[in-house]
TrEMBL record:
Keywords: Dioxygenase, Iron, Metal-binding, Oxidoreductase. It comes from Nicator chloris. This is OGFD3 protein. InterPro entries: OGFOD3 (IPR039210), Oxoglu/Fe-dep_dioxygenase_dom (IPR005123), Pro_4_hyd_alph (IPR006620), Pro_4_hyd_alph_FE2OG_OXY (IPR044862). Gene3D superfamilies: q2cbj1_9rhob like domain. The lineage of its organism: Eukaryota, Metazoa, Chordata, Craniata, Vertebrata.
Length: 252
């Protein structure tokens, strides 16, 4: 892997760490939205937006939802927006599959906390990149992930490949991750790695830590394979294009 530099150690308590990097040309092949499409690009990490207690509460939402299903492989997904839930080698729609039972699993407070956390992350990203939060739209996929050391059974389980979010999902302009468990305490491996030409820059997950970045090729990244334990996180993504906007999940 060449040189590896740790951007954020698990033991750090970071107010705001931001590194500006030149924007890639990826945004030029999509419609530009003034006051939102990245002109300033980079990556940031903060432990000051979401508390560890809130992260624990959010993780419980993920644990309850994923207890209904789970992948046969190492990576399970729960998307409260679309209802997508890993089940064996496939996905089911949580809301259709479990119907009224959903009310026994999630509460209005769960969804209110989820919404509040999402809004705070959106505000922080907007502040750092000098844009208005109202110019950004929550987009899909926005989802919980649970990763462990089980071998991959389908391509969905192969989360460790390097990728660019803007290339994978054209709608993404800003990507964020909220970590819900602690590197080296809850799991081994599973660090987030920015892959730069000269070196790798890693973020060690810590419950409540938010990592965020512009979604173009300037931020090619991957996640290391989880070696032991269980890693929980939420990917929360934003688009500048209102047509790609999605609403917050609602408890029907």
């Amino acid at each position: 892997d060449g040189v590896t530099e740790v951007l954020a150690h698990r033991s750090d308590n970071l107010q705001d760490k931001f590194i500006e990097i030149p924007c890639s040309e990826d945004y030029d092949s999509h419609k530009r939205f003034a006051g939102c499409t990245p002109r300033k690009c980079g990556r940031g990490v903060t432990d000051a937006v979401i508390t560890r207690e809130e992260a624990v509460r959010i993780r419980r939402i993920a644990e309850r939802g994923l207890s209904l299903g789970g992948s046969d492989g190492g990576a399970s997904i729960l998307d409260l927006h679309s209802g997508a839930l890993s089940l064996g080698k496939h996905f089911v729609n949580l809301y259709r599959y479990f119907g009224d039972k959903i009310q026994d699993i999630f509460t209005e407070e769960d969804f209110a906390l989820y919404r509040d956390v999402r809004q705070r992350i959106q505000q922080r990203i907007a502040q750092v990149f000098g844009i208005s939060p109202s110019a950004m739209y929550l987009t899909k996929p926005t989802f919980f992930s649970r990763m462990n050391s089980t071998g991959a059974k389908t391509t969905h389980d192969e989360y460790w490949h390097p990728h660019v979010d803007k290339v994978t999902y054209g709608s993404f302009d800003y990507t964020s991750l909220l970590y819900l468990s602690d590197y080296s305490e809850d799991f081994g491996g599973g660090r987030f790695v920015f892959m730069d030409a000269d070196s790798n820059k890693t973020v060690e997950p810590r419950a409540g830590r938010v990592s965020f970045f512009t979604s173009g090729s300037e931020n090619l990244h991957r996640v290391e394979k989880v070696q032991w334990g269980t890693r929980f996180a939420i990917t929360i993504s934003f688009s500048c294009d209102p047509e790609h906007g999605i609403g917050d999940p609602r408890l029907a």
